[in-house]
Design brief:
homodimer, about 375 residues, alpha/beta, 9-stranded mixed sheet, 17 strands
């Protein structure tokens, strides 16, 4: 769709800005470290594709040993499937009949699981799976403290699990027990406590199910912030971190403790200085359409004197203390929040030792519906 | 690239969510009102394509009488040109030699103008235009109070204008005199004052140029917030509003006075209630990848009791006072900021009298480089 922003073998100076770039050494180390962490704990790793929406990255995660991938939308699942991913868990509730039919059609050709938190959706899923002649795996979305979606009452979860199990074309897959607010808790002990409480809440629900004879094939959840704790407590049987491949300013503010595992910043926005007309700042060519501002301003990589202070659609104003970048100079920005930043770009440019090694299509970008 | 999210003739209930939708009656009224306002003032209207990045919308603006369009990047200009737009002003500075060559190649086939605020860029533009055998129109980016990019000193502007005029393949096009911070000033008199001061600053520069024999073919600037004042003062000869076709929550907070012109909300994010598991809120399927949060939370259209309170990548939590939406119900959200929200979507679905009348490709979406 888009012309390539970079040629293989080129340098940073050859890349059209703004561009999403990936430090391949750090990226690969993050994948390897996450795989090693989860394998040591005996917990399945199912990385979250919502962080990247890029089948090349999903394939790198699978090649390292991940059991499959997560995504959040039927559109993402379709794009991942088209691009060769064949074990996909939509870690989200899907209620629209048309989307449920698309999901069932996907399940004819690949392993697909999805979540429910409302009994009225179960007959729609069953009818679509029957019509497609396939089996859809269904997990119950449980509320383990996020108070967003999901069922908190264990008896309610058990009733819904029985409901699913009674359907000929559905297979009860277990519990989706994710707690988003724990991921960005700054204090490592408070974060660990939230992860612990999530595990306790999920285990309590699992115990109620077990007491009524329902076996939970998996309990899945966790994210980049809590994954080391999740592996330590082992209440979850599967973790679904996403951001660890990239990191961002927000994750860098999570403090670590001796139980934590460190991942490194691999994702950057390459930008160029386009105006030095003012004395106290420079203007670069990346703005609201190059990085997301929901978690605050980006930072300039490896340049402590440079401070982004104001962002507009296509520009960021960078206050200069000490060294002042030149007109045309390229800077690397660390985005505030990786997932919605990555979703702005059609390509990610992989760099190693200062050279462009890969240009990957973000082939599930924009697939929100 | 993407499957269509809606079929012509369908209803809101048939559209896959989240989706960008356009109330065609309001959209057309906005275009007509802006055209009428500028024509009455004798000021050229060159709408800003950065707001929509959609050639179908640009064509609707041109059909109503706009003199051409603005954009911010060479990538946008290329996409607009590919899709039939032939008078394009890049109201931004471009300094990268590779981009300057792309720009000159575009100017071989269409009318292209661009801004400079640094003398070092002029020989690059001249060389590229000479090589392409074409003429590029160059405006001087002046700082009329935004303190972002641009030159504030009139003598500096005059020197740069002479520099441009001395180049065989460049044509001096005038002044780009935009003031972004005025557009969102809430108080209508304060906003009017900022527009006035912008006009005074631009006129002062123009007078210095005139005194040295330099004729300014146009003075362009203004935006949706100040356009009525800009038309009233007539210091600018061309205005470049963008958001007026859509509006957003942020613009709705601008107070109006008797000198103001009212535009109406035409842009919405269609979303669906996907969870009613909690007692005090519902969860809808639009989040950070469906609307931009740089200007704050979206609002729910025509539903005063419903209040978005928390946003994550794919969800918005909506607190319910009084009436509670049903599972599967569709709601229309008004985004906080239209430009970066529109840039998240590949399609915009036009609705009239509750029916889908058009599905337009956002064919310059993502063209930031």
């Amino acid at each position: 769709m888009s012309a390539s922003l970079a040629a293989i073998g080129g340098t940073l100076g050859d890349i059209a800005t703004p561009a999403l770039v990936l430090d391949l050494d750090e990226f690969e180390a993050n994948i390897e470290n996450m795989q090693r962490l989860t394998e040591a704990a005996g917990i399945a790793l199912r990385p979250h594709g919502k962080a990247h929406r890029c089948s090349a990255i999903a394939k790198a995660q699978l090649a390292a040993g991940a059991v499959g991938i997560c995504c959040q939308t039927v559109g993402e699942a379709e794009r991942f499937r088209e691009n060769g991913i064949d074990d996909i868990f939509i870690s989200n509730v899907i209620v629209d009949p048309a989307k449920i039919h698309r999901l069932a059609r996907l399940a004819m050709r690949t392993k697909v699981a999805v979540c429910v938190d409302d009994a009225r959706v179960v007959p729609l899923l069953e009818a679509a799976a029957r019509e497609a002649g396939c089996t859809v795996e269904v997990l119950i979305e449980v509320d383990v403290g996020d108070h967003r979606l999901g069922i908190a009452d264990p008896q309610g979860v058990a009733a819904l699990a029985r409901n699913v199990s009674n359907c000929l074309h559905l297979k009860f897959g277990g519990l989706q027990a994710y707690i988003g607010r724990a991921q960005h808790e700054r204090d490592p002990l408070a974060r660990r406590n939230l992860a612990y409480e999530t595990g306790v809440a999920a285990t309590r629900i699992n115990d109620v199910l077990a007491a009524t004879g329902i076996v939970c094939p998996r309990i899945t959840g966790g994210g980049t912030g809590t994954v080391a704790d999740d592996c330590d407590f082992a209440a979850l049987t599967e973790v679904q971190p996403g951001s660890y491949v990239f990191l961002d300013v927000d994750y860098s503010r999570n403090q670590l403790c001796e139980k934590s595992v460190r991942f490194n910043q691999s994702l950057f926005i390459l930008t160029q200085v386009v105006s030095v007309a003012a004395a106290d700042h420079v203007i670069c060519d990346a703005g609201l359409k190059a990085f997301s501002m929901d978690s605050g301003l980006p930072e300039v990589h490896a340049a402590p004197g440079l401070r982004p202070v104001r962002v507009s659609d296509e520009h960021v104003k960078i206050a200069c203390g000490g060294v002042r970048p030149e007109l045309g100079e390229r800077l690397l920005l660390i985005p505030g929040h990786c997932d919605p930043t990555v979703n702005l770009h059609d390509q990610i440019i992989g760099l190693r030792s200062g050279r462009v090694e890969s240009v990957w299509a973000m082939d599930a970008r924009g697939a929100s519906a």
